[in-house]
Amino acid sequence: MKKLLLSFGAVVLLAAGAQAQVSYGLKAGVNLGKYSNLGDDQKNNTSFHVTGFADLPVATNFSIQPGVSLQGKGTKYYENYEGMAEAEFARNVMSVEIPVNAVYWIPAGSGSVFLGAGPYIGFNVSGKDKLKGNLGDYAGETDWDLEFSGDDKDMNVIDAGANFMAGYKLANGFLLNAGYNLGLTQLAPNADETVSNRVWSFGVGFQF
């Protein structure tokens, strides 16, 4: 965690020294989330993301992008027991994140290809588990809110890791982008193995 915080500090100081014109942007799109170390039975949990960011040039074709992001994450399972019972479980978690990405721009056509990576720190603010199925004497649907504090909490509050992104910026500022969110912190209290986020994202945006 100390290394992550030091990385944040370094990129912020670098960005603060930038003299070129700062621009701003907004991105939104679809998230496809799973968790690490929970087996191959997981399905992609579909959610969304909305991110506001600043682009601070620090060198030719190179910039730092700090931002604030609302990220939907989680996982989903579906099980069918030889037609005798079936169940679908989904966990949906909403997180507020602060990413700081280093971005390299490659002029291409009338716009630019961009490649980026950097650390993020997130705070899980709400979540819900949903269970729907036909399991012996039980048939129906139920849900319950997740707890992020206390001795019986369902998930840890802090989520930190690394972002990777790529896309294309048109000359008018329109963005096409894709990304991968690699969680590096433990989300599951008292688990034997580290359970962390694995999220693909696809979206559009505008930088002005």
* Tally of separate domains: 1
The name of the CATH architecture is Beta Barrel
Based on Cα principal axes, name the global outline: elongated
Distance between the termini: 33 Å
Q: Please, what is the average pLDDT?
A: 90
**Largest pleated sheet:** 8 strands, antiparallel, barrel
- Sheet with most strands: strand arrangement: 1-3-4-5-6-8-9-10
Radius of gyration: 19 Å
Structural class: mainly beta
CATH class: Mainly Beta
| Helix content estimate | under 10%
Which residues form runs of ≥5 with pLDDT under 50? 15-19
* Annotation, overall tally of beta strands: 10
Secondary-structure element order, N to C: HEEEEEEEEEE
Beta strand %: over 45%
CATH topology: Porin
Number of helices: 1
